[in-house]
Fold each of these.
Amino acid sequence: MKNMGRNLSRYSEKVRRLWEGMNPCELCPRMCKVNRRAGEIGFCGTGDMAIVSSVGPHFGEESVLVGKGGSGTIFLAGCNLGCVFCQNYDISHFRHGQARTMEQIVEFMFDLNGHGCGNINFVTPTHVVPAVAGAIELARQRGLELPIVYNCGGYELVETLRLLEGYVDIYMPDMKFSDSAVAKELADAADYPEVAFAAVKEMHRQVGDLKVGANGVASRGLLVRHLVLPNKQAGSFKIMDFLAEEISPSTTINVMEQYRPCFKASSHPKINRRCTAEEIAKVREYAVSKGLNVLN
Ligand code: SF4
């Protein structure tokens, strides 16, 4: 695989710094310190190229991203979290897909634009952010104007996010857990709560509250996703408190109801079932009571 899009001389300082951040790899809070540019692999199981699992208009995303033409999703394989209940485990843990150059990712972006998508939605980009930022830069230089959505797990390093300022229009992080012991057991990330809280603050600093145009489609801002887990395992109320009190009372949040006990969840007794209607309702009501902008 000759050259593989790694000639970085035409890229900006920010993109080059992101690529340098893979040797040793300190792109995310795992701090694996492996040399991914020499083929070493860390927790995310991914080399220096992005593995693209699928590309296409997606109509199952939040309505503010879908519009008429769908959200232009680019699903990236691998993940820096180890969620035992992963709802996308074939992509995230088994890493199904093909390694693609930044040039190839740019082609996908223009294909999605040609299909009438309202945005480009990078799904699970954190561990391959150098390739994602490089592709965004090239696409912008070639005239792509669609908003860029950074659709991530929330386990992000603030220093890395700072290098993305100006590249991302809509940050769409998960906020998965507010309790460290649960985050350790269910995602192998005891520091998830503090890391995700700091990351969301930085995202909001960059893009502010979600702005939705007269056509009902978002153009910029923060959109938080929160998947309710059974038996209060997500620590939902603390997350709502944090968003309302430390981010903005106008934060837009999608309280997601679709939890299913996938992957290894059946061996964890507290999450081996779906949520009840009452569990979901309590979280939604609490979010509303805090004044948050809760999507339907
Ligand atoms: S991006 Fe991957 S290799 Fe780098 S620190 Fe994170 S998990 Fe480790």
Note: The domain at 49-294 is CATH 3.20.20.70 (TIM Barrel).
Amino acid sequence: MNAIGAPVIEAKTVGKTYGVGRAPVRALDGVSFAVPEAAFVSLVGPSGCGKSTLLQIMGGLVPSTEGEVLIDRERVAKPMPGKIAIVFQDATLLPWKTARANVEFPLELQGIGAAERRRRSDDMLNLVGLGDFTERFPHELSGGMKQRVSIARGLAQEPRIILMDEPFGALDEQTRIKMGQELLRIWEATRKTIFLITHSLTEAIYLSDRVLVMSHRPGRIVETLTIDLPRPRTYDMIGGVEFGRARNRIWSLITADEAEGAVEP
Ligand SMILES: Nc1ncnc2c1ncn2[C@@H]1O[C@H](COP(=O)(O)OP(=O)(O)OP(=O)(O)O)[C@@H](O)[C@H]1O
Ligand SMILES: [Mg+2]
């Protein structure tokens, strides 16, 4: 088990309504939770329940309608580069830039000097296993490799927190499991706090210390499961009794909610 520290992220009764005035959509309602320093926390819930909305509020990309998110006790009002990095579902790489240039681009925007940018892009591309592909363009990389560049770009910002929105959603199952294992290795090497949105219950349980389960829209946290499986996690644990119990529990919570949309068991 990894040591779990003080909360680094705190969501306090966060609510979000889109399009106030005309046809409002209530996306989130009374969402409260805390994420301890260096923890790996996942968020699962039916499609359209407000997960991406919550992640965007946590990242300072969209404002909440009610409540607040605190990072290190500071209210999130705008993006916090250097503190929070976001990895999106589609790798969102710039097609005209090499893997290295994609990793360095946000650092350039932050005014970080060329030598330091180079050191970080070398370190992080090596860490994600792309040391031989630094000068390749996105179209020369596989889906999994592009996603690894995207993760390296997040890590190179040396954030304390990485928010990930379905980062492996577009990958086949085998690549997805390998990427999850890779992510655990990186997490163990860097001790970041990771907050991951996923549609895969298996992935959430396999990777996390805690799994937050969100209800159908408007999203609320209906349960927080602590995953007590030992670390390092191994593939055979997926077939174990404890694993199955956690998966059944999450499944029953999500289906009891008469969720629309896809959730993978
Ligand atoms: N910019 C926006 N303007 C208006 N409504 C929005 C906006 N973004 C999201 N919504 C609505 O808010 C609700 C929650 O959307 P959100 O993208 O947060 O769901 P999600 O849980 O991430 O879904 P999925 O699992 O499919 O990615 C949906 O009803 C969606 O239509
Ligand atoms: Mg989403």
Note: The first helix runs from residue 51 to 58.
